[in-house]
Design a protein that fits this description.
The chain has 256 residues and is of the alpha+beta class. The chain is 28% helix and 30% strand. The strands form 3 sheets. Strands 4-5-6-9-8-7 form a 6-stranded antiparallel beta sheet. Strand 5 and strand 6 form a beta hairpin.
Length: 256
């Protein structure tokens, strides 16, 4: 019930829970009280509480997990900008790249699930890297990135095999301080420019939604990032998929 003694509707219950989540009363990655307890607290039926939960799930604030209750998945949106790629940002606090640095700054625990293989790249990636088609000539480093157990990124970084084979880039573990850009610099391929193509909002495939643990109705942001050396060579192509509500895109550019 509200302060006037009137019964709350599901929208009011959702609004109260939303405010409590954003204020940190229910921290990210914590589990909400069970629905019967919330129903008693708000003087409402379980069906109304369930509808309120559905609203919050649609907004990406919570996620039901079988056998584990309803988990809080709210995160402050991370700013995606050129500043995140600065070496000082990527290596802050011994972080293993920009993502680690951002998650640690939120007081959460970064986790990397990594697979690495030598592979034939898709045609568009082979073209970007200046490699012939139809050959196993790339190393691909795939990562599912989590913040305190919440999946927030799917990354795949492609490198010419000629520069990446038998290097730290082949280690299927988060062992690279500063991430792949620092690793490439250490191998003699420092990047002086990066370019990105961003699709700000599209629906995920079934596999993408499953990996990110989101509904297929939730939109994702799709980023293709290329890293260039001083002589213009592209030595890295990284694709990033993230639930759109976890990102704010910010760019600075000159005007004439």
């Amino acid at each position: 019930m509200n302060e006037n003694g009137a019964k709350l509707g599901f929208r009011e219950i959702a609004a109260t829970l939303r405010a409590d989540i954003i204020a940190g009363r229910y921290p990210t990655a914590s589990v909400l009280p069970p629905e019967p307890e919330l129903a008693e607290r708000y003087g409402a039926s379980r069906s109304l509480v369930n509808r309120a939960m559905s609203v919050l799930a649609a907004e990406g604030l919570v996620r039901p997990r079988q056998g584990r209750g309803t988990m809080v998945t709210w995160l402050p949106p991370m700013v995606h900008s050129a500043a995140r790629y600065a070496r000082s940002a990527r290596e802050r606090g011994d972080a293993k790249g920009a993502f680690d640095s951002e998650v640690l700054a939120l007081g959460l625990e970064p986790k990397h699930e990594i697979t690495v293989e030598r592979a034939e790249p898709p045609a568009e990636i082979a073209d970007a890297l200046g490699l012939p088609h139809g050959e196993v000539n790339c190393l691909v480093r795939r990562r599912r990135l989590l913040a305190s157990g919440i999946p927030v990124r799917l990354n795949a970084s492609w490198f010419p095999l000629s520069i990446a084979k038998e290097t730290v880039l082949e280690e299927a573990a988060p062992v690279i301080k500063g991430g792949v850009k620092s690793a490439l610099a250490g191998l003699g391929y420092p990047q002086t420019e990066a370019r990105e193509r961003i699709i700000p909002s599209r629906l995920p495939t079934e596999a993408e939604a499953r990996a990110l643990e989101i509904s297929r109705d939730r939109t994702i942001t799709d980023i293709v990032h290329t890293g260039h050396t001083a002589d213009g060579r592209i030595v890295e192509v990284t694709t990033t998929l993230a639930p759109a509500h976890y990102l704010v895109i910010e760019h600075t550019f000159p005007l004439s």
